[in-house]
Amino acid sequence: MTTAKRIVPDRCLGTIIDVQDFFLAQVRDRRARDRIATNTLNFARLLDYFRIPLLVTLERPVYRKGSVLNGLKRHLGDRAHLFEKDFFDLTREKKIRSFLGHAKKKQVIVAGCETEVCVLQSCLGLLGLGYEVYVVEDLLFSSSRKVESALARMHAAGAVFLTYKTLYYELLEAVEGAAQRTKSLGPFPDDLPDCAA
After folding, report:
1. Rounded to an integer, what distance in angstroms lies between the CA atom of residue 42 and that of residue 38?
2. By CB atoms within 10 Å of each CB, which of 38, 69, 101, 106 scores lowest?
3. How far apart are the C-alpha atoms of 16 and 47, rounded to whole Å?
4. Which pLDDT tens digit goes with each residue over 57-100?
5. Backbone phi, then psi, for 20, in 5-degree steps?
């Protein structure tokens, strides 16, 4: 049994897996699609504030499935690295695997879609490479309603599940740390919510 460790900004890398128009369109409820886009954007902004590199994947063919969402693209910053992929498991792509090796991070925070396909296989791949994997459960989505077995499988393999709110406060660490954070990272964005929409 893997023991959950604290998330440490200097040791971690974020991933946004395949949040593209093709997959969002399969979510029938427009409000749910808007929530997914907003939550993914806030996740990217939170990681960017803490200087956490972000790996963003796009499933091919991009001309059919879509590129990075417009709102998200504006907030990716220079710590975001974009990769197209053919494999469902992002670790099977040579360029991504090379990037992971050069990044020298041991913790990976995962968000994206589809829960029972690319997210599942990527988490299993990352765990197989020895990474500590943290899955932000309220930042996952799928065209299927039946994802419980995929969640159980990731958990059994050693992935640690958390919410966006848990991640937010674990990165902040303390109420009293605001002055020190501002000194090293700049003012924290007032409009960044502490919970997923």
Report:
1. 6
2. 101
3. 11
4. 999 999 999 999 887 887 787 889 999 999 999 999 999 999 99
5. -125, 160
The CB density around residue 42, as the number of other CB atoms within 10 Å, is 22
Q: Which residues pair with 75 in a beta bridge?
A: none
Query: What is the reported pTM?
Result: 0.93
Taking only the tens place, the pLDDT of each residue in 19-55 is 999 999 999 899 999 999 999 999 999 999 999 999 9
Nearest-CA neighbor of 130 among 112, 105, 152, 147? 105
Which 3 state secondary structure label does DSSP give 39?
helix
Is pLDDT at 133 greater than 70 in this prediction?
yes
Q: How far apart are CA 13 and CA 28, in angstroms?
A: 31
* Residue 91 per-residue DSSP state: G
Task: Check: CB of residue 151 under 8 Å from CB of residue 137.
Answer: yes
Buried (b) or exposed (e) across 130-157, using 16+ Cβ within 10 A? ebbbbbbbbbbbbbeeebeebbeebeee
Mean pLDDT along residues 180-194: 83
Say if CB 125 and CB 89 are below 8 A apart: yes
Q: Which residue has the tokens 């695997």?
A: 97
Report the chain's terminal Cα–Cα distance, integer Å: 32
